[in-house]
Amino acid sequence: MTPPPSSSIAFDRIADRYDATRGGDARGRHTAAAFAPWLPPGTVVELGVGTGLIGSAMAASGRQIVGVDLARPMLDRAAERLPGRIVQGDVLAPPFRSGAAAAVVAVHVLHLVGDLAGAVRASAALLQRGGRLVVSGIDGNHHSDDDIWAIQHDVAARHRLIPNPPAEAIIDIGRDDGLLLIHDGHMPRRKFAQSPAHAADLLESRAWSWCWGISDDVWASEVVPAIGALRALPEPARQRQGWIEWRYVVLEATG
């Protein structure tokens, strides 16, 4: 397996179809609603703002949102949703002054960062006293266990460069920087529909970030069979109803 990257992974290559492959505005609203009770008044910095799906949903409820992302093509789209409130930068060194944020939000970002401890510590430095760090994209999600998921999970688990980070690791790192856990739970269930054929198409087009570092030889021997297995499922064009409950943690700055 290729060693994990030493820096954050940019999403330039997926910008033109990110929204369509990641749940679109509905997912943004779902996440923003789950996080809303935990966000204190003041500026919210979203790390890995992407195309602004979640940030714009939070802004629609009156939040003061600022977003940062590595990928310029993603930010070009985010600028349409959050004009004047996005900046290019790395979550390991976000371009904001210390204590600038009432909250920092990281949604499915930390598995793309080569230095988990550095990302958590950089987030802690941004927070005011009493500010909160909200993180999803960690281990411990609840999900439907169907034939599509089983095939996708098997190949992704074996080839993901950086797995979803353990919540306990984030909690331990945060504690060293004055962040204390105040919530560990799951978002409300999000339902979706997908067919095996569509799942195969997405995998074949390397829509998922874990695919990007795989060599041609490994792709042919490991991923192509998974694509074939998806297309070989009964009634491959028929949509299956799936669901997921993303786990997230909230840490509060004590000092």
3D architecture notes:
The protein has 255 residues and is α/β, with parallel strands linked by helices. Helices cover 36% and strands 23% of the residues. The strands form two sheets. It has a seven-stranded mixed beta sheet, sandwiched between helices. A three-stranded antiparallel beta sheet has the order 6-9-8. Strand 1 (43-47), helix 3 (53-60) and strand 2 (64-69) form a beta-alpha-beta unit.
Low-confidence stretches: 1-6
Q: What is the β-strand count?
A: 10
Largest sheet: 7 strands, mixed
Number of helices: 9
Task: List the secondary-structure elements in sequence, H or E.
Answer: HHEHEHEEHEEHHEEHHEE
Shape: globular
CATH superfamily heading: Vaccinia Virus protein VP39
Sheet with most strands: strand arrangement: 3-2-1-4-5-10-7
Helix share of residues?
25-40%
Please tell me the total number of domains: 1
Based on CA atoms alone, the radius of gyration comes out at 18 Å
Under CATH at level 1, the class stands as: Alpha Beta
Helix and strand content put the structural class at alpha/beta
On the 0 to 100 scale, the average pLDDT is 93
Instruction: Report the β-strand fraction as a percent range.
Output: 15-25%
Q: Roughly how many Å apart are the termini?
A: 41 Å
What name is given to the CATH topology?
A: Rossmann fold
* CATH architecture term: 3-Layer(aba) Sandwich
